[in-house]
Amino acid sequence: MRRLVWNELLPKDRYVVRIVRPISFAETGFVTQLYLPIIGVESYSLYQLLVHGVQEISAASTEGTHRSLMLTTSLSLDRLLDARERLEAMGLLEVRRRENQQRDYYYEYLVKPPLTPSEFFADYVLSLMLLNKIENIRFQQMRQLYADVVGNQLEQEYSIVENVTKDFHEVFQSLKPSELEVKKGSERERFLTEMEASFPQAALQSNYEAQVNHPLSVSSLRLYLPDNADSAKVLDGSSMELLYQLCHFYQLDSWGMGQELRDWTLYKADRSLDGEVLRKRLMQRYTEDKLYRNTPTATPAGEDEWGPGRLPEPGSEAFVRACRLLSPLALLERVVGGRVSKVFLDRAETLVFADGLQPEVVNALILHTLASMQMELPKAYMETIRDSWKAKRIATVDEAVKQILDRADQRAQTQEKAKGSKKESAPARRNGRAVLQDKLPASVEWQLAQESNANESTKGKLISDDPELSKMLETLRKKQKGG
After folding, report:
1. What whole-number distance in Å separates Cα of residue 258 and Cα of residue 221?
2. Is the whole-model pTM more than 0.70?
């Protein structure tokens, strides 16, 4: 289908270029070496044109029209738009469209710096895209060019590190509060206010971090659907909710999920998505290590507190943080120190997608079961707790932690009661077997008590004085002896 570019952009539409922060000479080299093979010459030329058209002092350029861009780059409007969108996809450009009362458009182009080489090569998708474009030899040269061999050797040979950087106030100890005080209504305050109003500063960010986002994008997923799929049914309602859940569980981005949605066998006769077939496919792809996952490179806070062979204490900050931030699969991978077995995967996947528990509740259940069952996940044990929690409508990790702690308290109290209720004497045994002992009638026990505690004030008939009671007592004693 031919794209109607004139509905999206016109040559007369004006634009202005801004930069998020000054882009260094080294960063322009990163674009040349790493991005150019992926985005192509047209996008690269447009990026360079936009960057060099910005005054680094004011962080903005003079306004222009897209017709001037077309003339400068010798690109038609559709090719100019394609080149711009490739920059947007790679995180090098952010586009904002403004509109006035006359419905005239004004475009704001925010130019962003590229990723550093280490960040670029750490991105699975970008790294493979570059490799496919330049092949092995050139890719090896790029890795060698940006390698830090000395720094790596330094970390290995000098592993003990101490930060001796001085704080601001350690250096400027003579700074007095009076030097920083600006009195209200003073001449200095009026001067500073006038400067703010007359010369507003550019919105540069010294701490800006370049990144390429791979979130779950509906527009991106639509491009991967085969001909026998209806995008209106696949990317809407319950199907979209399932896709979000699967992406979170398996740590997939739009590109990774899109690769799976290419399979035409995932769709029903009415061209809708078969969620069960997709679930089984993702499980199989994971066990075969063929799933394109977007595993985070950042180290989560508190990672040292637990890991393989060590579990966080229920109710601790590390326990709650792990349940809230990690997907059940990522949690299990942290516990075992790598890829998990199909049994563990099936346990976690069933709790989320078949039983409908919240991921943070599933994480709490998994950690509790591992701690209680010697790092195993017995199905019957988990189903018992699952049914109990569902009946109690447990929906958050805080509620699950309360159930775990209450259960532990009840178990401790039961054990204490069991210890206190043990009999002082062991039951009589004969030939290695316990001998059942008949309980004495209440009347006989009362008479025996009277005999043992008899005194001068005790009145009444003793057992020895009653032949019938004496005979009954003798019969019971013979039974206790096994006679």
Report:
1. 5
2. no
